[in-house]
Amino acid sequence: MKRYLDDLVLNDLATKAVVLTGPRQVGKTTLSRQLMQSFGRAQYLNWDVSADRVVLLRQSWNPRADLLVMDEIHKMPDWKAWLKGVADGRLAGQALLVTGSARMETFRQAGNSLAGRYFAFRLHPISVREWCEQQGVDPATALDHLLERGGFPEPCLAADSVQADRWRAQYFTDLIREDVLEFSRLHEINTMRLFVELLRERVGSPLSLASIARDLAVAPATLKRYLDILQALFIVFTVHPWHRNVGRAILQTPKVYFFDTGLVRGDQGVRLENAVATMLLKQAQFLQDSAGREVGLHYIRTKDGAEVDFAFSEAGVLKQLIECKLGDNKPHRALARFAEQFPDTEAVQLVYDLRQEEFRNGIAITDAANWLAQLAA
Predict the structure, then answer these.
(1) Which residues cross the membrane (predicted)?
(2) To pair with 42 at 20 to 30 A between CA atoms, which of 71, 131, 196, 369?
(3) Where are the beta strands (DSSP E) in 123-273?
C-alpha cells in the first residue's frame, strides 16, 4: 500500500539522510521496502536481527548500495554519534534511510548533534483522506471504517473485524511486554498496564495524574514518567491548552489520545474525537515535517469550564477552532463564544451525522467526513 509520505521521502533521500519514526506496525518497514524498489541496489538492516546487528556494528554493509535502510538503530548505545559518523562517511550518492518505532530523539543522550544532516518525517496511521485515495471510497465510508478498525494498516486491510480485533489484542500485549520494557523495569509492567487501561477510559478529558496516582497508589511523578514513555513509543499523544504564553500552556492539564483509535474505550462520540485528534496531529506534523511550518495542535478550556475540542495555531497565532459532534447541528456555545472572541480565527463544528451544512453565529457547521478528507495528509 502506497503511503502519503512515499514520494516526499524519496525526494529528500536525494539530498540528505532521512529519519522516519512512528508507532510500531504503522507501516515504516513497508514504506522502506517500497522505496528500495526505486534504487538499483538497496540493503535493509534491522538492529533487532542478530546477523544484521553484526553488519551494523562492523559497518560492513555493501559499499555499492544505492540505498541503505537502517531500522531500530536507536537501540544501539550512543547511536547518535555512530549515525553521525555513518552519515558523514558514506559514499557520495549513497542514500540513507533510518527508521524506528520509538521517538529517536527521546531517552537517548549523545554528545554529537545530527543537526543539518537529515530530514525527519513522522509516519502516522491512515486518515480519511488517505483511505479515500487508496480505496476509492467516499469520505463517510472511510470515516466509518476508521472508527471501527482504527488507522493502522493491518486492521484496516483485514478481511473482517474479527481479524482486526485479534491483531489489536496481540499488538497491545506486545507494546506493554516488549516496547515498554525498553524504558522501564519489569516490576513496573503491571502498573503500567493498569495506567494504560485507565487512559483508555479517559480519552478527551483533561488528565489528572494526581487523581490516577491515588487510584494506583503510586507517586504522580511516576505516572508522569510512564506518560513520557507512552508518548515516546507513540502509544499516546497529549494535546495541551492553547495560551499565548507557551510556557503556561505546557504547565496546564493536557488531554490524552491514542494513536490507535481502536484502543479507545468509550462511546461513538469519544471514538470520533480520538479519530479526529489523530488526523489533526497527522496534519500538523505533516506540515511541520514537509514544509517547515510552525503549526501546533491544542484545545481551549477556561476556568469557568467553557471548552473547544481542538485549536490550530501557526507561528503563535490561533488559526482554527474545531469542535466535534455526533449529530448536533446547533452551534456549540463555547465555540460561538471563542469565535466572537477571536474574529480572525476560523470556527468549524464537525458533525458526524449532518443533514445540512450551514453557517451560523460565525461557525461553519460542516460534515465531519468531508472536512477530514480535505486535510493535507
Answers:
(1) none
(2) 131
(3) 236-241, 255-258
- At 182 the three-state DSSP class reads helix
Helix (H, G, I), strand (E, B) or coil at 367: strand
How many helices (H) and strands (E) in the chain? Answer: 15, 13
Interval 260-316: pLDDT, tens: 999 999 999 999 999 999 999 999 999 999 999 999 999 998 888 889 999 999 998
Which cell is 234 given? 507513540
**Residue 75 falls in which region: left (phi positive, over 0), alpha (psi -120 to 50) or beta:** alpha
Percent of the chain with pLDDT over 90: 69
On the CB side of 224, CA atoms within 13 Å amount to 7
Note whether 191 and 218 are within 8 A (CB).
Answer: yes
Provide the pLDDT for residue 190: 82
DSSP class of 252? S
- Contact (Cβ atoms closer than 8 angstroms) between residue 199 and residue 256: yes
Q: How buried is 328 (Cβ within 10 angstroms: 0-12 exposed, 13-18 middle, 19+ buried)? A: middle
Question: Would you tell me how many other CB atoms lie within 10 Å of the CB of residue 55?
Answer: 15
What is the pLDDT at residue 244? Answer: 72
Measured in degrees and rounded to the nearest 5, phi and psi for residue 217 equal 60, 45
pLDDT at 109: 38
Write the single-letter amino acid at 190.
Answer: N
Q: Flag whether pLDDT at 108 surpasses 60.
A: no
Region at 78 (left for phi over 0; alpha for psi -120 to 50; beta for the rest): left
Q: What is the C-alpha separation between 91 and 132, in angstroms, rounded?
A: 40
Compute the C-alpha angle 39/45/46, nearest 5°: 135
Residues in the chain: 377
- Radius of gyration of the chain measured on its C-alpha atoms: 21
Residue 237: pLDDT band by 50, 70, 90 thresholds? very high
